[in-house]
Amino acid sequence: MAVSIVMPALEMAQDTGKLISWRKNEGERVTKGEALLEIETDKAVVEIEAPGDGILAGVTAHEGAVIPVGQTIAWLVQPGEAVPVETHCASPPASVSISPKARRLAKEHGVDLATVRGSGPGGEIVAEDILGAAQSAIRPSTSSGRPEPAEGRDPQSAMSSVGRLMAERTTHSWTTVPHFFLTREVDASGLVAARSRFADATITDLLLALVARVLGKHPRMNASWTGDGIRLNADVNVAVAIAVTDAVVTGVVHHADRASVAGIAVQRTMLTERARAGKLQPADISGATFTISNLGMYRVDAFTAIIVPPQAGILAVGAVVDRVVAVDGTPAVRPTMNLTLSCDHRVVDGARAARFLSDVVEVIRDPERDLKSEV
Fold it and tell me: Can you give the pTM of this predicted structure?
């Protein structure tokens, strides 16, 4: 029996995906679980596995196409089996059809839809069409009034599609989510000492483990804004920000509150390797309930991070640096770090956020209390 290949929905509010490449050619045999294609979402380029065994046939989408979620783009058929006729009789969208995301972006950027030519199936206007129109409207001009020639620009300044989507996504978050920020400085002596017990773990791995355990005690910080209200998430899935070529993506450690430091270290390493190789899987980027962004390795003392909707918060972590602090009224040198918590005020108020951050500070000061059972 033929198995349909559809554009998957990997994120909330995702209405389209961009096909980056097919990993198999039409007519080739495919095994279930084998890498079949790569798609691009708002978060990353993701590798999609084959949902069954068969021969790839009836391919209707090609590299670079932006495709609505749920649309069939190919089939897996058995030898001698015909491609289902449904792939050929789907009715095209209306000539003025526009995706919900594109309509929102057009409103935000002031783009006149009558001037936009759609590149989606059947001429549908998709998000990339709106972004392109908005970019053209603000493109610098030369003194003659003509657009600046491409050869006059730095080739390295061109954004990849992932970088452009990240820019769009962070702009939308910053302009629609009511952020507020809390900052604490914490003595990291205990964290540094605990780090020495875990040979393959980093400070980020320890923070993932500790913060996840605290999130389990603060359900509002682990919640999501749905547009209609607050959703309390049953699982604690902590994402970690990962720098790639010209963007930042987030990889998700699922059930982080129940994972060991060693297990988290393995997962975080795998996520980093796959992200930088452009081989992230759907599960690698979906389901996050909170995010940690650590720039300590770049010697950044402190920063504020932009929330990743629909999450309620993101924790920005600065470098561990020796500083002179007061200990029992006497100056002493201690390794300290700055934490800045960004919160969505629709989900969590200042008092709840402050209690959460205080508990995070306490587990960083005394991590052995939560990690003493681990080798």
Answer: 0.70
